[in-house]
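Aim 2, interim progress: modelling of the alpha-L-arabinofuranose-bound target.
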Amino acid sequence: KKAKMILEKDFKIAEIDNRIYGSFIEHLGRAVYGGIYEPGHPDADEKGFRKDVTGLIKELQVPLIRYPGGNFVSGYNWEDGVGPVESRPRRLELAWRTTEPNVVGTNEFMEWAKQAGAEVNMAVNLGTRGIDAARNLVEYCNHDSGSYYSDLRISHGYREPHKIKTWCLGNEMDGPWQIGHKTAAEYGRIAQEAAKVMKWVDPDIELVACGSSNRSMPTFAEWEATVLDHTYDHVEYISLHQYYGNHSNDISNYLALSLEMDDFISSVVSIADYIKAKKRSKKKIHLSFDEWNVWYHSREADKLIEPWTVAPPQLEDIYNFEDALLVGCMLITMLKHADRVKIACLAQLVNVIAPIMTEENGPAWKQTIFYPYMHASVYGRGVALNPIISSPKYDSKDFTDVPTLESTAVYNEENEELTIFAVNRDLQDGLLLECDIRNFEGYKVVEHIVLENDDIKQTNSAKTEAVKPHTNGDASLRDGALYAMLPKLSWNVIRLA
Ligand code: AHR
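Predicted structure of the complex, ligand included:
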């Protein structure tokens, strides 16, 4: 089988916002306690944070981490997590039915994120709290000094303001499972007023309004339109969340789910632009895909977890090879929308539906999905190009005309590098990619990284890394064109410079 592609320097979608390679850490399961934070672990620093975990996060070059939730944030009193640790309350955490010890809070997390090389995308509680708690948190984090909350931060040992730029106005407020679930109009109003005063405290911040919890929500589309009707002039982004799973064990259909993600993104762009038109606004709303991943392996096991324990092993999906391929397709899909998707967070980062897992008192290890995420984050910086692709197609249970080749390319003008990301969705055959790279004269193949495996259900573990990339791909140049054999069911990164 054969696919063709034309790459041209001037076919540009947009400059990629590096924040699309963001991730997420929630006070949930073993993400914080037993994940990034494990005092007593041989690799823990003096504050209790695991340096081996931070090391893996640095390998991923994660630019932005959303915190502290997720569903957790809708019942969180941020004040519980600051000040002397010994006076912080233990709380019943209603979103995940655990006990939150509040040993790690805003300041510890901000310090840790700095070490991990990431900015923080801070969420405020618009479930049980509201405008007052939100504006106070902005004052606590971002105001220099001379006011109650900024001086409180200083008294807690943090002289310099954290200067958090990106803020989420609550989380999944359309979901009946959410603490303080709201109608679109109720949420739109509170988000608008919270946004207004948060920006009065710090005009430099950027705000994300909650979109739908996923594309199947009955209120989807109407929700976005109503929320943006209220918040349009006060926010920069509307959020999208989506998780997928191979529930019917149908890989052809599973790998096509990124087409649904593509449609979801286009729909939200249309809704945002409809409100733009309605308001005769000059402003464009961008998208924050601030929760995305595969999530389904652990759903049954989670039902057996003892309630009100501290940091139980929740949402610990163990990813297999096919999950890595879908994650690759999802990353390519977001790059194709680099003109509108400016923030995205792989949900989540450590232990909870995560690319990085930890063993208690033992090693940290890489899940299969670590690799496509790392490759995109490390090599996918620059300008998203718009390749012209012709690929064989197939039909699956829910999709028609699924391209066998899912691909895109990124041009890094500064480093004079061109990177092609490609997934071959074919179950049986390799796909010969012929790529016309016309005005990239003098470029040579640096490497052709391939993630492939004979067993689509293969997983990694603390002991063995059975799914890991190799660099024996056969990409080569002939007469100004690039040729590469993409093995059946494979993730490929072809780097030229
Ligand atoms: O990421 C796990 C959960 O998924 C988040 O807490 C919530 O926002 C979403 O439903």
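Residues 257-278 form the longest helix (22 residues). The mean pLDDT is 98.
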